[in-house]
Amino acid sequence: MPFLHWPFFRSIPELTPVAVLDILAVAFLFYQFFLIIRGRRAFAIITGVLMLVGIYVFAVVAGMGLLRTILETVAPYSVFALIVLFQSDIRRLLARMGRRRFLTGPTFDRREAVQEITLALETLSRNRTGALIVIERDIGLRTFVESGVMIDGVLSRDLLLSIFHPGTALHDGAVIIQGNRVAAAACFLPLSTNPRLMSTLGTRHRAAIGITEETDCLSIVVSEETGRISVAAFGEIQLNLSPEEVERRIANHFGLTKESDATAGAAVTALSAGDAGLKEARRP
After folding, report:
1. How confident is the model at residue 3 (pLDDT cuts 50, 70, 90)?
2. What are the structural domains, with CATH classification, of the chain?
3. Do 159 and 123 touch, CB atoms closer than 8 A?
4. What string of DSSP letters covers the chain?
5. Do 71 and 59 form a contact (C-beta atoms < 8 A)?
6. pLDDT of 215-241, one tens digit each?
7. Crossing angle of helices 243-253 and 111-127, rounded to 10°
8. Is the dihedral of CA 142, 147, 151, 154 positive or negative?
9. Phi and psi for 244 in degrees, rounded to 5?
């Protein structure tokens, strides 16, 4: 076609397999970045930066020398400003890229641990005792473990209930589980800054979401006001789940087998029925 011989088309480099791979890699990075900043304050900052770029292009086209000079002078320093503003989002992007498993398998793989957590959640929900449990996956939580009180105890229902018992020194923070052990209690977690959640959820739920925005862990929350159980993962939260639904979420998140999931569910049901029968027998 005649228009293909125009100088503009002649300057376009040849589309090689390497060029296609380069374009896909850049598109993937931009896609991941926009997934992270969607619905956050960073999105407004990006919009402001794009507006400044548009103003600069307009100044160049219109021949506004003073405005163009000012923007060109400020531009080199804006790079450092953006790094400071987006430090948490950049960290979140790198963590998201590193979530893929290659050589390591799931670290949380014992159905007994799922049973202990589920049984503890049933009691906490029934008594309307606030709780926040974080289960580590591939990305380490050592920074957050060190912010709390070291426990390093075998995971059990009794240990979790003792930690979250109202009035104790450790109940007002997060419990972090590494493998099949309770690593620490009363841990401080980053709060989610998502504007969609700040006005509807409390501090405990925002902390549960915030830790999953930076790592690939799973957070479980028991509301102190309503007793409802919620599960957060990858920056999203599901509210008002039953213990059985929480158990399935844990199994899906950590890649547990269906056989283990079914066995754990049966054991939890049996133990729950046993607890109910024991309470009924104790009544006068």
Report:
1. very low
2. 2-97 (no CATH), 111-282 (3.40.1700.10)
3. no
4. -GGGGSHHHHTSPP--HHHHHHHHHHHHHHHHHHHHHTTSHHHHHHHHHHHHHHHHHHHHHHT-HHHHHHHHHHHHHHHHHHHHHTHHHHHHHHHHHTT--SS---S---HHHHHHHHHHHHHHHHHT--EEEEE--SS--HHHHTTSEEEEEE--HHHHHHHTSTTSTTTTSEEEEETTEEEEEEE--PPP--HHHHTTS-HHHHHHHHHHHHSS-EEEEE-TTT--EEEEETTEEEEEE-HHHHHHHHHHHTT--HHHHHHHHHHHHHHHHHHHHHHHHH--
5. yes
6. 889 999 999 999 999 999 988 899 999
7. 150
8. negative
9. -65, -40
- Output the six-digit token pair for 45: 């900052």
- Token digits of residue 181: 């052990």
Q: Locate 128 and state its tokens.
A: 């309307």
Q: 160: Cβ–Cβ under 8 A, 6 or more apart, which residues?
A: 116, 117, 120, 124, 131, 133, 175, 182
pTM of this structure: 0.60
Asked if 216 contacts 59 with a C-beta cutoff of 8 angstroms, the reply is no
Q: What are phi and psi of 269, to 5 degrees?
A: -60, -45
Cα separation, 10 vs 255, whole angstroms: 52
Highest mean pLDDT among 97-106, 198-207, 252-261: 198-207
Contact 218, 232 (CB under 8 A): yes
Q: What is the pLDDT of residue 46?
A: 76
Question: Residue holding tokens 């292009």?
Answer: 57
